[in-house]
Amino acid sequence: MMTDRARPLPAQCLVIGDRFKADVAIGRAAGMTTTLTLIGATDCRALAEATVQPDHVIDHSTD
Predict the structure, then answer these.
(1) Cα dist. 14→10, 27, 37, 40, 60 in Å?
(2) d(CA 54, CA 40)
(3) Alpha-carbon distance 25 to 62, whole Å?
(4) Dihedrals φ, ψ of 37, to 5°?
(5) Which of 14, 58, 24 is nearest to 38 (CA)?
(6) Parallel, antiparallel, or unpaired: how do β-strands 33-37 and 56-58 relate?
């Protein structure tokens, strides 16, 4: 992993993923910026109902 060598601060990292529990929640807990993609496991309805919100949302693969 890049973090093994570079040792960035959590605030300098970006977590990108399509699952709240596996990506957004863990990234937020670690103090990282999060981006949720709506092209995988999470859709707009789930995003609206989520208690943990990402910093950014990508709604399709061309964003």
Answers:
(1) 8, 8, 13, 18, 18
(2) 15
(3) 24
(4) -100, 135
(5) 58
(6) parallel
**pLDDT tens sequence across 5-44:** 778 899 999 999 999 888 999 999 999 999 999 988 888 8
Q: Are 5 and 27 in contact (CB under 8 A)?
A: no
Q: Residue 15 contacts by C-beta under 8 Å, 6 or more apart in sequence?
A: 23, 24, 26, 27, 30, 32, 33, 34, 35
Are 24 and 15 in contact, with CB atoms under 8 Å apart?
yes
Task: Write out the two tokens for 10.
Answer: 């959590």
Q: How far apart are CA 63 and CA 61, in angstroms?
A: 6
Q: Enter the pTM of the model.
A: 0.79
